[in-house]
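Here's a chain:
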Amino acid sequence: MTRDTPALNFFPTSRPAAPSTAPVTDAELVERAKAGDDAAFGILVDRYQHVVVRAVRAVVGPSDDAEDVAQEAFLRAFRSIGGFRGESSVKTWLLAIAWRQALSHRRSIAARLRRFIAPDDDQLFDPPATGRLPDQALADLELRRAVARGVRTLPARYREALMLFATGDHTFDEMSQALNVPAGTLKWRVSEARRRLKQKLERLGVTR
């Protein structure tokens, strides 16, 4: 594999079992990747693939497209690793690339059609715990669907801030650096998204 034509399957978006690489810092891996060590970049992918996929899903939704967009984001990062100067963390750098890639994808007509025609409400939230009684499971399902519908009706700037924050992968400072939006603005958008979502659910009679 060359740096110009890396194979897509070099960047898996699932989390395979691998030996611990904790003693090797991100900075060391970046320098090795710049020197042509593809395996070093692969370790960075293993470390942050879940972060990238979850960030992409905040923009494009819980569809199969998220996996493809994440792959493209890693390819872009791989090709531009030589330009990484360490002014932000590797995690923040990858988040910025993934966010731009996801926004670009969402703007395409085909992506909009797929998002409109085949949304999957249930994938936005974890399934109900096993052992629940049928009526409890049904209530949980209806609640998740109501929340998912409410989230989708939020303006994009509020929805994206809320979904990205909800992943639990990023601090507001990291989000601010990656998205070039002041941290205070992001905090307000998350708060406003929660307020609007709560109002929508209350109008539907959802009280919990």
